[in-house]
Amino acid sequence: MNKKILSAVVGVAAVAGMGATGASAATLDDVKAKGFVQCGVSTGLAGFSAPNDAGDWSGLDVDLCRGVAAAVFGDATAVKYSPLSAKERFTALQSGEVDVLSRNTTWTMSRDTQLGLNFAGVNYYDGQGFMVRKSLGVNSALQLSGASVCVQTGTTTELNLTDYFKANDMTYNPVVFEKLEEVNAAYDANRCDVYTTDQSGLYSIRLGLSAPDEHMVLPEVISKEPLGPAVRQGDDQWFSVVKWVHFAMLNAEELGITSANADEMLESTDPNIMRLLGKEGAFGEAIGVSNDWAYQVIKQVGNYGEVFERNVGASTPLAIDRGVNALWSKGGFQYAPPIR
Amino acid sequence: MAHQAGVSSDADDSGRVSLMNDPKARGLFFQGLLIIAVIAMVYMGISNAIANLARAGIASGFGFFGDRAGFDIGQTIIPYTNDSNYLQAFYVGLVNTLVVAVIGIFFATIIGFIVGLARLSKNYLVQKFATVYVETLRNIPLLLQLLFWYKAVLSILPSPREAARETGVEVAFSINNRGLYLPRVIPEDGSSLIFYALVIAIAAWFFIGRWAKKRQMATGRQFPVFLTGLGLLIALPLLAFLVTGMPLSLEYASLQGFNMVGGWIVQPEFMALLLGLALYTASFIAEIVRAGILAVSHGQTEAAFALGIRPNLTSRLVIVPQAMRVIIPPLTSQFLNLTKNSSLAVAIGYPDLVSVTGTVLNQTGQAVEVISITMLVYLTLSLLTSAFMNWFNSSVALVER
Amino acid sequence: MDNTTNSIAYVRTQESPATAPPVSTGGVGGWLKENLFATPRDTVLTILTFLFLVWIIPPIVDWAFISAVWTGESREDCIVPGAGACWAFVEAKFGQFMYGRYPLEERWRVDLSGLLLILGLVPIAIPSVPYKRENALYLLFVFPVLAFILLTGQFGLRPVETALWGGLLVTLVVAIVGIVVSFPLGILLALGRRSEMPIVKMFCVIFIEFWRGVPLITVLFMSSVMLPLFLPDGVSFDKLLRALIGVALFASAYMAEVIRGGLQAIPKGQYEAANAMALTFWQGTRLVTMPQALKLVIPGIVNTFIGLFKDTSLVLIIGLFDLLGIVQQNMNDPNWISPQTPATGFVFAAFVFFIFCFGMSRYSAYMERRLDTGHKR
Fold first, then answer.
1. Is the pLDDT of residue B4 over 50?
2. What is the fold of B86-151+268-396?
3. DSSP per-residue codes, C75-142
4. Where are the domains of chain B?
5. B139:C354 CB<8 A
6. How far B253 CA lies from chain A's nearest CA (Å)?
7. In this predicted structure, what is the pLDDT of residue B168?
8. Nearest-CA residue of chain A relative to B367?
9. Chain A contact set for B178 (CB, 8 A)
10. Which residues pair with A198 in a beta bridge?
């Protein structure tokens, strides 16, 4: 009997050891100790975070995680990805299963305050839109009264949708699914007249429909959807690392530093560039990483403009315009505090 | 070892055994150990959860139930709008689960009995067909079947515009990929009498059944209970309907804009879920029915024939009542399985309890409270169903001397 | 009137030649009459069934074989008008359906684990092969350790994280871990439920009824969303492991009830005999009652396993890519999306599940017949 209990205890301990990973208050130390960044991503949204057949992840959100890894380890590949559904994502971060949640997540007040998250910035300014079949002959969202609307559950989208139809005194019939693939499939099977989610998502999803050309995204944007990476509350150091990786990529674009010319720029005498690339001051040490952190981020991942173009920009099938995601100096919203 | 120690101590001091070998003491010891272990585990879990929630700054408690839900639900049988609170959303999900479970049980039982009897049929074609049906459906995961039916329902049915063709024309019946549209009955003043008539008819059926059984036991004469009951069920409400001056009106569906508007709608998600659940569970019920009938000894049939009872009556009066005793316990667990399996609705977008609470979970972020409540509801449903079926089972059980 | 009938002395000395059966009962016609057209009702049923089959079978055959697209490179090949099943899709994605995203060069490890499993499973399934006990120990203890080392990559093998696992591999891992864990746990729970210690009994009853009363999907949600919150700070489980814990606990409750059925079916005399032989409770259980009980419930265990195997498909709802999950995911691959792709994928997955489950249910039926002769009271 005692032997049995003992072996059971040993077994449980062994099982616990198998999957146990550290996640205490000092996330940066844990990340350094285990040697990689655990990054929570979507289960597959082209351009933001999607795996290819070999299981390699790419996308705008993925590049942020790679940037963090480059800053911490000088190695952008030191990332492991956890694909998370909308439902799982917050508990995964709260419980320490992932170190950073970079999963096209909208920054809202309740998430910031009640769910124990800290949003480290906005890496994509988005807004909710509608996609319809061209054959319906609709050209404004205000003509959608009475439509069936496909929407993913557990998103801010679902609530905005309700508010928008209510505000405009229109009716609709919601068709709600748990997973993105299910929403896509239902819309493609003509279960709904309208598909609603963030506009960037609509472009991405349209690519995966059986006849992308038969669908159009309506011009109306009905909500503000600032998408950004989130970390756990109560760990300011890690919060700073993630926040400043994002800002470093923005500053690099502003200063004209790209992954191609990062090495040349090391010779620059512009004090702004020298500070960013770690030639002057000890900004890296202040957040617990090496001083060439931003150089590593830019060299291995690229500046924000490069990352945007590579994943969602004009040269990709998504062909999304920079629009409000252009730098502040070019008429957009993307604005990073200076490194000083 | 207990035995040896017991023997030696018996010899030494008049029946006293050492504490280690006393089964009672040992039992108490182990139970104490178990209690401590369980309490320790529960305590650890709860204190971890509290610490984790506090550290992450997550709100807890059931206060969120009173907040405005702010989302819409596709199928609402009880009144609900996006201004209702989370608790009402929760009730909508529960009612949707119950509706699909009850209707699913009804159809699964009927199909299951038919297929079960078909498997015992002497007709080669019918019997083989039933066998293929049972073997195929039993051996494919239900989730796969649901996804398949949903896809099939959506791809076979036309879009509402194709189905209706003309805008604004009222149709009594339409089936398209937005749902099955039937006229809706709208009660007007005085229509409650029709409802009472229906209740009276059902009650009358029940009492006539009892009376007929009593009379048959006493005199052997039979009474056409089913036909009489059916007649009452149709005639009484019809009479009430005519007497009160036809206080019901029908609302028809018509194509307006994108969709059919008005009428009574059965969503395609509901159809796919019902189809999947009923067909899948029916394949299990068929096997139970077959086993139950085979369990009735052949002598019973022969005895009935020897008494000159016709084959149809033999099945109804001799075979089926005896088979029912074997059938009911496993049937209960199939009903429970169907109810629990209805939670797979979440994969095809039918707003059942799991789906709605999933949305609530997402919007509030309070995983522990929401999931515990959901599990508790299913547990209660299960216990209630088994309690009811146990009662029913004991009422048909063989009274043994 | 013939006088032979009146004479009792007449005894026939040779057998009269058998008359041929009436035309209506022999041959094809007779078979038809007996099996298809015995009564008017039968005739109607036969005709209706026949019409139904004629209505349903030719389109299925046409879709699955005649108009099917067998080879192709992308959706372009399957999108042709009038095309049936897009088997080219299954062909192109077959590796993913079996292994998920398991690295190509490491897939031999999965194959080897599969071989080790078959090596243990085949001899234990054939009743006449000896060394059943050693075989069972291999399957319950040695094989899981070997498979764990091979699949996750220990002792110098390249580690493969479980996020890359998928397809049939995950289906089998979940089902087998479920059964291997639930078996001993189920035995303990079944013994606990029959125990005379009230508290032990109460805990076992509550445990069993709780897991049996809730749907597996809520269990999976609980283990994937809630469990992390109940673990101490700094400990977190792998996503697959969390699903495995949920499935194992769920399966144990069902297994416990099956085994309890076996224990109840053994005559009380066996328990009394074990006591009379002065065996302790555990000795008696191990040597006398449990072997008999387990033998009795082999069909029940196999049926539980079939149920568990089918239920593994639910893990797709919590975002693991089992066979069904990975098929569903690949249906949305822009390179392969076509009107026939989903149906083809579902039919393929259904076929694989059917092969496994039907095989096991045939085996269970075979064992049931074999065991039918023995201990029935």
1. no
2. MetI-like fold (1.10.3720)
3. HHHH-STT---BHHHHHHHHHHHHHBT--GGGHHHHHHHHHHHHHHHHHHHSTT-S-HHHHHHIIIII
4. 2-56, 86-151+268-396
5. yes
6. 13
7. 65
8. A91
9. 148, 173, 191
10. A128
DSSP H or E run through B254: strand B253-256
pLDDT digits (tens, 9 = 90+) for A152-167: 886 778 888 988 998 9
Beta-carbon contacts below 8 Å between A and B: 110
Q: Nearest C-alpha of chain A: how many angstroms from C223? A: 11
In angstroms, rounded to a whole number, what is the distance separating the alpha carbons of residues B356 and B76?
11
Structure tokens given for B144 = 């796969």
B35 interaction partners in chain C (CB closer than 8 Å): 199
Q: What is the pLDDT of residue C352?
A: 94
Is A24 a residue whose pLDDT tops 60? no
Helix, strand, or coil here: B230? helix
Confidence of residue A318 (pLDDT cuts 50, 70, 90): confident
Containing A217, the helix (H) or strand (E) segment is strand A215-217
Helical H segments across C312-340, by residue range: 323-331
Cα–chain center distance at A311 = 12
Sole residue written with tokens 């269990």: C219
Cβ–Cβ below 8 Å for C349 and B144: yes
pLDDT confidence tier of residue C156, bands split at 50, 70 and 90: confident
Residues 307-336 of B with CB under 8 A from C: 336
Domains of chain A (ranges; CATH) run 26-124+227-328 (3.40.190.10), 128-223 (3.40.190.10)
Amino acid identity of residue C306, one-letter, is: I
CA angle centred on A10, ends A8 and A12, rounded to 5°: 70
Give partners of C (≥3 CB pairs < 8 A): A, B
- C55: how many CB neighbours lie within 10 A of its CB? 9
DSSP state of B82: T
Shortest distance, CA C354 to any CA of chain A (angstroms): 24
Of the candidates B177, B349, B358, the beta carbon closest to that of A190 is on B177
Of A44, A92, A210, the CB nearest to C337: A210
Phi (first) and psi of residue A176, to 5 degrees: -110, 130
Q: How far apart are CA C371 and CA C365, in angstroms?
A: 10
CB C261 within 8 A of CB C297: yes
* pLDDT given at position C168: 92
Structure tokens at A39: 């990054």
B174 beta partners: B181
User: Is beta strand B184-187 parallel, antiparallel or unpaired with respect to A57-58?
Assistant: unpaired
Q: Which of residues 173-202 of B touch C (CB under 8 A)?
A: none
Shortest alpha-carbon distance between residue B152 and chain C (Å): 8
C163:A207 CB<8 A: no
Query: In angstroms, rounded to a whole number, what is the distance separating the alpha carbons of residues C20 and B75?
Result: 68
Q: Which domains does chain C have, with CATH numbers?
A: 27-66 (no CATH), 97-102+160-371 (1.10.3720.10)
The secondary structure element, H or E, covering residue C13 is none
Distance of CA A133 to the CA centre of its chain: 28
* B259-261 sheet: strands from edge to edge: B170-171, B253-256, B259-261
Query: CB–CB of A34/A54 below 8 Å?
Result: no
Task: State the smallest CA–CA distance between residue C121 and chain A in angstroms.
Answer: 24
- Among all chains, which residue has been given the structure tokens 């289960």? A43
Tell whether the model's pLDDT for residue B401 goes beyond 70. no
